[in-house]
Backbone:
């Protein structure tokens, strides 16, 4: 009797493990950050990329219905990949496209913009990467959709593609 | 002359307290960054890592300390930004209930089994 209970217990335990492991087979083991948040944007000060004049976030996020904040760098290869998508988004006049230049060499960054085109209404500098951290970023590139109440309504980690541009356009409508 | 000496002493005292506070902040930055996970590295804390993410994170922790935030407030701020995953020491709540309760449960069950075996042996 005792042996039977023990056997039953072992079988039960093994089937429990099997179900859990089998269910986890299809789960991705890559940690994906939350992409939808209703976090309010932190206030920060930065420098304008071209004039190097100090500018506050209140001055940048002012007067538009939506803002797209894109974290980019000249040394980041996926940033080159998503540049056509950003140029496409910049044609939409209802949105202000803001570039946050992350830990970059100013010369290289200017060359990058000169070669590929400037989709941004304004570019600000994040020399030490602290603004990106305060925004909740993991790396470059990352794109944030921010509404007029300065709430981050959507976040894209990694380069933008045609699918994400469609999604952004749906939000902006 | 005496007055000058007194001023000099006061000046040094204030400077030393400033140095002390800077050292305290450095220690706290180290302590906090050891408890914060580098989210883009594998198995490294922010303190151990030299990645861009970790270096910037250390600066943000230092900045928050200088702004007068307490250690707990910094953890709360980072959890709010990056989620519970960022700390090595998850807080006790509904989602982490199993995580915290399971070792205690296993300990009690294991203890009970050993205790029973001992009684049987006696």
Residues:
């Amino acid at each position: 009797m005792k042996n039977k209970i023990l056997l039953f217990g072992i079988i039960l335990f093994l089937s429990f493990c099997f179900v859990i492991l089998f269910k986890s087979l299809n789960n991705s083991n890559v940690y994906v950050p939350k992409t939808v948040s209703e976090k309010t944007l932190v206030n920060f000060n930065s420098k304008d990329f071209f004039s190097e004049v100090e500018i506050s976030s209140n001055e940048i996020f002012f007067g538009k219905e939506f803002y797209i904040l894109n974290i980019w760098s000249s040394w980041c290869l996926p940033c080159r990949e998503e540049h056509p998508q950003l140029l496409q988004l910049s044609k939409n006049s209802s949105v202000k496209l803001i570039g946050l230049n992350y830990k970059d060499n100013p010369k290289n960054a200017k060359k990058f913009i000169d070669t590929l085109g400037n989709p941004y209404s304004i570019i600000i500098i994040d020399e030490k990467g602290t603004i990106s951290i305060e925004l909740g970023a993991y790396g470059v590139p990352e794109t944030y959709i921010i509404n007029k109440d300065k709430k981050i309504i959507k976040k894209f980690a990694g380069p933008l593609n045609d699918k994400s541009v469609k999604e952004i356009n749906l939000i902006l409508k | 002359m005496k007055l000058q000496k007194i001023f000099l002493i006061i000046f040094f005292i204030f400077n030393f307290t400033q140095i002390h506070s800077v050292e305290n902040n450095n220690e706290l930055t180290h302590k906090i960054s050891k408890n914060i996970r580098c989210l883009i590295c594998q198995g490294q804390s922010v303190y151990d890592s030299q990645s861009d993410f970790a270096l910037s994170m250390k600066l943000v922790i230092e900045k928050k300390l200088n702004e007068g935030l307490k250690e707990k407030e910094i953890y709360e701020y980072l959890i709010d930004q990056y989620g519970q995953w960022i700390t090595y020491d998850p807080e006790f709540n509904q989602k982490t209930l199993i995580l915290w309760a399971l070792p205690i449960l296993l300990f009690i069950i294991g203890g009970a089994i050993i205790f029973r075996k001992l009684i049987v042996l006696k």
Summary: The CA atoms of residues 40 and 151 of chain A lie 4 Å apart. The interface with chain B takes residues 31, 33-34, 39, 103, 128-130, 132-134, 136, 138-139 of chain A (CB under 8 Å).
